[in-house]
Amino acid sequence: MKRELIVTEDGSHSIFVPELNEHYHSTHGAVQESMHVFIEAGLKPILTRKREINVLEVGLGTGLNAALSLLVSDEFKAKINYVGVEAYPLSLSEGSQLNFHEITGGNKMRETIMKIHSNNRKYPFYLGENFILNYLEAKLEDVGFPNDSFDLVYFDAFAPDVQPELWSKEIFEKLYQSMKFEGYLLTYSAKGEVRRNMKEVGFEIEKLPGVGGKREMTRAFKKIADFHHHEH
Questions:
Q1: In 19-151, alpha helices (H)
Q2: CB 59 within 8 A of CB 17
Q3: Residue 27 and residue 211: Cα distance in Å, rounded?
Q4: 118 CA to centre of own chain
Q5: Distance CA 210, CA 197 (A)
Q6: How far apart are CA 82 and CA 43, in angstroms?
Q7: Residues 6+ apart with CB under 8 A from 219
Q8: β-strands 150-155, 179-187: how paired?
Q9: Are 7 and 27 spatial neighbours (Cβ–Cβ below 8 Å)?
Q10: Model pTM?
Q11: Looking at residue 144, what is its pLDDT?
């Protein structure tokens, strides 16, 4: 699959896939979008409640969300076990061209992105002192997850019209089962059909403003069902 490096409006890189006519990140700003959708709406609220969490990313792609999560987890002095699923990994030479460090995080960002794309993916590795990355080179459909394990899911797949099979009820059911109660699933998409599929498998849906007030994004919440509360 051919990939081209492009510059987004905040100056940070994204990758364009001509045959899908699709970008890895918002053209309005890759770093800006990741911070808004996944970090501010997901990671930070969870880290204010818990200092040790499990995160799943669907569509690890450039590694930006993982790298930002590491930088933020350092601020919170938190521990993160991070599972990233990516069917088409970037090569080290593609990864090394990414300029996210020029926008945020400096050398630490640069080193982290390089590490993500250079490590042997067969085993989990320490991306940071308290951050383990398990990079799964696979399609989401082919991966099995234990139940009740993730506090947070970053759903960063290609758009629903490009990869409809990933936005299906079956996939959201699988993710719902893999999440802990009170966990969040975040995505940049606000499509009605996507939200309906999420609702049908049990998620509560919150509509949040998208990046820079443009459109909306979605935060799905795995709520503790009432029948779990026993009267004593």
A1: 30-34, 44-49, 64-76, 92-97, 100-103, 106-118
A2: no
A3: 11
A4: 20
A5: 20
A6: 12
A7: 41, 42, 184, 185, 186, 205, 206, 208
A8: parallel
A9: no
A10: 0.95
A11: 96
- Domains plus CATH for the chain? 29-228 (3.40.50.150)
3-state helix, strand, coil in the chain (%, to 5): 40, 25, 35
> For strand 4-7 and strand 13-17, is the pairing parallel, antiparallel, or unpaired?
antiparallel
Q: For residues 127 and 208, what is the distance between their CA atoms, to the nearest angstrom?
A: 30
State the Cα–Cα distance between residues 47 and 72, nearest whole angstrom. Answer: 9
pLDDT score of 230:
47
pLDDT tens-digit series, residues 23-58: 999 998 999 999 999 999 999 999 999 999 999 999
- Residue with tokens 């079956």, as numbered in its chain: 170
Both ends of the chain: CA-CA distance in Å?
Answer: 59
What whole-number distance in Å separates Cα of residue 33 and Cα of residue 28? 8
> Beta strands 125-128 and 216-221: pairing type?
unpaired
Burial of 198 (0-12, 13-18, 19+ CB in 10 A): buried
User: Which residues lie closer than 8 Å to 121 by C-beta, 6 or more apart?
Assistant: 89, 135, 136, 137
Task: State the pLDDT at residue 227.
Answer: 55
Alpha-helix residue ranges (DSSP H) falling in the chain: 30-34, 44-49, 64-76, 92-97, 100-103, 106-118, 169-178, 192-200
Low-confidence ranges of the chain (pLDDT < 70): 226-232
